[in-house]
């Protein structure tokens, strides 16, 4: 069964068409990477899937539930880690997690235990009672992932989860995600523009550019499709998206990305 | 194949709604607890109004306040004014959180948006209540002649809670109309002073020109002041239930508007 189906999705901001008829599917239990340069439309797709944005056309189903028709159900099925750092710096890690447990309606008797369990899983239990302001970028990310897992989602949406992190912190994030997946088999949709990350972590990827899906398949398949030379996934990426580089990354997007990177220090 | 997701029962909906309000409010209270000195320091401004403005203006005649000493008349007005300023600028935090991405994640949670708004507004109101309690304590020490009673004090704290919740929700409506903090400051200023001057906070409605009296009738701040003055000074029209109903109605309207406008600007 497919955990996620996206069909002919169109997203417009005024006259600007950010996503122009994107279609792809994610199998249950899979880690699926949505790749593309800045401005390709990855975050717009995330916004539709998280019910923050109504698409101008097309539809998406999460475990068979149409996001547009059943936004409340969709929100109960997903865990979401946005690109911007969204943990509240003026609360402790535990307070952040407790807030999300309550917003997600985790029953009172399970709340404390589930929060402890997730903080443990993401290896921030020792810092749980410190203000998040004092966390490193990698710790904040892991806290956000812990928060996103509190409601036992069926689909985890990660928008550029390692943006702005140094290699050590990046590895730690992925290691903890892998451990979590080994336990839960959770389906994940990840956007990134780091090719080696996609190659290592994703079973399948779709390459987006200028609002369109240019290719979909396993990293091995995509490399093979490029033909001779045994190119890397990065070569695939560049060849598929070269035409869009001029257009890519509106000022607004870049500003947002830099802001996130700066906060991660 | 569609995996069936059980619908929520009415009871689960109610529990979830209240849970969200409490969760949002509690998070804010955690934050407020870490800046206690700010809460107390904020009480300085209304006290200055009372002691400096009040001392000077109490020499003026024909404020329509002759039933009681002007300073006593002014106490409820100054309390309401401090509530107004705290509440109207509480929306600033929303803009900050929106820029950081905190808001987006809250909106993606399967929680009622109006409950999120109400929780945030109620927690801003808690700050206003603390501030008012501090000012009242100083007023007691200064022996400004109010009609002290337990009922009056408790009632006025409830009135402040209602008024501040409404004004904070109004502040969130304003926050969802603007793009930047600078715009918010500008618009906030634009709203606060007319609300203050077209109310009975500093002088009685009777001395206003006719058109302004009409404006004052539609000004929610008037009803908060009316409540406080009745409870603390014992003057003015005795219609506490009507006043409270107006404030509660105001909460319903502002929260409803804010929960529609608030998610729009998050992208």
Name the features.
heterodimer; A: 265 residues; alpha/beta; 6-stranded mixed sheet; 10 helices; 24% strand; B: 267 residues; mainly alpha; 12 helices
Description:
The complex is a heterodimer of chains A (265) and B (267). With 265 residues, chain A is α/β, with parallel strands linked by helices. Chain A contains 10 helices and 10 strands. Chain A has helices at residues 42-49, 71-77, 93-103, 108-121, 137-149, 167-184, 195-201, 219-225, 233-241, 251-264, and strands spanning 2-13, 16-27, 31-35, 57-62, 65-66, 78-81, 155-159, 187-192, 204-209, 212-217. In chain A, a hairpin with a 2-residue loop joins β9 (204-209) and β10 (212-217). By secondary structure, chain B is mostly helical. Chain B has helices at residues 10-33, 36-41, 44-57, 70-88, 91-100, 102-108, 113-141, 150-175, 181-197, 210-218, 220-232, 240-261. In chain B, α11 packs antiparallel against α12. The chains are: A alpha/beta (265), B mainly alpha (267).
Brief summary of the model shown:
By secondary structure, chain A is an alpha/beta fold. Chain A has 10 helices and 10 strands. Chain B has 12 helices and no strands.
**Major sheet of chain B: size, sense and barrel closure?**
none
Q: How much strand of chain B? A: under 5%
Strand content of chain A: 15-25%
Q: How do the SSEs of chain B run, as a string of H and E?
A: HHHHHHHHHHHH
Question: How would you name the oligomeric state of the polypeptide chains in this document?
Answer: heterodimer
Categorize the overall geometry of chain B: elongated
Low-confidence stretches of chain A: none
In angstroms, what is the radius of gyration of chain B? 20 Å
Helix content of chain A: 40-55%
Number of structural domains of chain B: 1
The parts of chain B where pLDDT drops under 50 for at least 5 residues are: none
Helix/strand-derived category of chain B reads mainly alpha
Number of strands of chain B: 0
């Amino acid at each position: 069964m497919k955990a996620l189906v996206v069909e002919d999705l169109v997203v417009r901001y005024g006259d600007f068409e950010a996503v122009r008829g994107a279609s792809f599917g994610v199998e249950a239990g899979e880690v699926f990477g949505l790749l593309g340069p800045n401005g390709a439309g990855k975050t717009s797709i995330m916004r539709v899937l998280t019910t923050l944005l109504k698409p101008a056309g097309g539809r998406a189903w999460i475990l068979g539930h149409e996001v547009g028709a059943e936004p409340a159900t969709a929100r109960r099925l997903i865990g979401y880690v946005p690109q911007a750092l969204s943990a509240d710096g003026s609360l402790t890690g535990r307070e952040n997690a407790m807030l999300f447990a309550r917003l997600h309606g985790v029953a009172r008797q399970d709340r404390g235990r589930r929060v402890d369990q997730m903080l443990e899983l993401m290896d921030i239990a020792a810092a749980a009672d410190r203000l998040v302001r004092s966390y490193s970028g990698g710790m904040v990310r892991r806290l956000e992932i812990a928060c996103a897992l509190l409601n036992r989602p069926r689909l985890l949406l990660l928008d550029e989860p390692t943006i702005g992190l140094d290699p050590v912190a990046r590895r730690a994030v992925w290691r903890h995600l892998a451990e979590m997946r080994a336990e839960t088999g959770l389906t994940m949709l990840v956007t990134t523009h780091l090719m080696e990350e996609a190659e290592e972590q994703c079973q399948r990827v779709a390459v987006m550019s200028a609002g369109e899906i240019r290719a979909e398949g396993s990293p091995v398949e995509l490399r093979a499709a490029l033909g001779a030379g045994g190119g890397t996934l990065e070569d695939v990426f560049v060849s598929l998206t070269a035409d869009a580089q001029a257009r890519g990354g509106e000022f607004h997007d870049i500003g947002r990305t830099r802001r996130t990177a700066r906060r991660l220090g | 194949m569609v995996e069936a997701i059980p619908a929520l029962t009415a009871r689960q909906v109610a529990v979830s709604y209240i849970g969200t309000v409490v969760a949002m409010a509690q998070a804010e209270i955690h934050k407020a607890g870490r800046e206690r000195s700010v809460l107390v320091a904020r009480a300085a401004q209304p006290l200055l109004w009372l002691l400096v403005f009040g001392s000077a203006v109490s020499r003026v005649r024909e404020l329509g306040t002759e039933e009681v000493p002007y300073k006593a008349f002014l106490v409820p007005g100054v309390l309401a004014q401090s509530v107004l300023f705290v509440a109207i600028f509480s929306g600033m935090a929303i803009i900050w959180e929106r820029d950081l991405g905190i808001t987006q994640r809250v909106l993606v949670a399967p929680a009622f948006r109006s409950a999120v708004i109400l929780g945030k507004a109620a927690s801003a109101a808690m700050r206003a209540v603390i501030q008012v309690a501090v000012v009242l304590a100083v007023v007691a020490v200064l022996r400004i002649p109010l009609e002290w009673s337990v009922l009056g004090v408790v009632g006025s704290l409830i009135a402040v809670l209602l008024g501040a919740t409404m004004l904070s929700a109004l502040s969130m409506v304003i926050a969802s109309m603007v793009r930047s903090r600078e715009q918010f400051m500008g618009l906030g200023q634009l709203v606060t002073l007319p609300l203050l001057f077209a109310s009975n906070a500093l002088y009685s409605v009777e001395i206003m020109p006719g058109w302004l009296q009409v404006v004052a009738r539609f000004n929610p701040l008037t009803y908060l002041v009316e409540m406080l003055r009745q409870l603390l000074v014992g003057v003015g029209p005795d219609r506490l239930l009507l006043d409270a109903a107006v404030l509660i109605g105001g909460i319903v309207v502002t929260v409803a508007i804010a929960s529609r406008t608030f998610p729009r600007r998050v992208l």
